[in-house]
Queue: 2 jobs
Job 1
Amino acid sequence: MLAWPKKASLRGRGRQPDLISNGEVCDGKAPPVNASTRLLWLAVILIFSLMVAAAAALLSRAGGDGPAAAMFKGGASFGATVLVLFAIFYFATAGS
């Protein structure tokens, strides 16, 4: 349950301290991510990006594009998906 911290300092005029669950003042940053969690998320990002790329290539090929064009579209969708998911991961972990 969220509660006001016992040793809270107000960081500005009339500003309330951030709500947290463990009794300490929150500084607005996400907790650090350890290496094993980071590797797990990397694997999830890559697997999901591969699925998106395969779907894009298959749909492109089924739409009448040649093999080279289908592979190019699959590669582009893989790169875009990885970029977006890495940006989301970086934002969610606050660059830790």
Note: Residues 1-29 form one domain.
Job 2
Amino acid sequence: MNMCAIVTKGSSGSTLTRIDAAARLMDPSVDCLYVDIQPMHSRLPGRVALDESLKITHVDPAFFGLSTLTRNSRINLIVSGGVAAANRMIDRAREFLKEHDIKALLLCNDRLFTEYAFVQAAKQLGIPTIFIQEGPFCIIKYIDPTHHWTKIRHNANTWAARLGFIPKIEPYGLNGHTAVLCVSESYRGRWIAGGADPSSIYVVGAPRFDDLATLDHVTLPTTRRVLFLSQPFAADRKVTEAASRAVQKLTADAFNAAYALDPFELTLRIHPRAKKETMRPLLDALQIPYEIDPSEKPLERVLFNFNCVVGHYSTGLIEALIMGRSICVVPVETEGFRLADEADKQLWFEDLGAPIARDPETGGAALQAALGGAEPTFDKQRLESECGVTDGRATERAASVVLDILRARGA
């Protein structure tokens, strides 16, 4: 039974390879072909690195015959022919799925044109599409832009779709999938409220968090060690460049202030989709020793080496809490967010009860308090509604749903 999994840099690869491996253990006839669409990303191109034993195809604009004139995927699609080009993408994806005799399509995102093309192609071929929520902070509605340039861009995209220049893509997970595998009952309710068929939604948890259930939650390093989680939110157009520079400067100032109170070891982790240069304002302002983590290992295999984790509103902060590590949040200024929904993620951490570093002085004190060894306190029910139950069995539950769908379709 051949499956096709659409992956990009980040946690989608980890999520889908886990489900694939579990499905193979349950049924050795299962096989999976991975399609890396990261080269299609106009602003953050690159390739997904998976285990060499896995079958993977890297898809770039040439695969679909698309222009690479600009760093804007919508403009490139319009230049390439608009809806006609999107239809050619669907045709090409359909040929690919037929060529490889694919029986199910797995994906963790469906908002990009490439994902749209594969989903539509699968539907035309009667292939079930299985959407897997990879983690927390998912926006299941049309975005609400706040920054003026983002509003202009959003309105232009809306009118481009209305006028037939580009295809209309529904909100996250609402593109008519055979099944949606979500992390919690809270998210199931959100998808139903968005118009999804209740019978198509399965609560399985987050496979990417399974390892957190078996790793050591208690033992802390004997030395005082801090991990910083960077986010390429300016490159992702989630916050403005000015806000990104400002929060990086604030982060550096907080680290400098905390180190002056009592030294510690600092490691800066580069986001899997980013490069070291995305942290340049932070690096230039730091006055203390640090090491760089290039993100070659999954975050859950790194977290246990640290006492405290610092970030903005990264999902990694949630993973740290699950593992019993203290966290400290350095907030992006509210006016710097391009999307109101993105700002809500940061507010979630404040409502959770996480310590906040709003300026260098309070940041230094908050970080030192976090390093003090006290058990972090937070609203655990609120955490579970966002990331599901962490019992180590989410992957198994997800794989079971996938196999049931394959068998029901006679694959």
Note: The first strand starts at residue 2 and ends at 7.
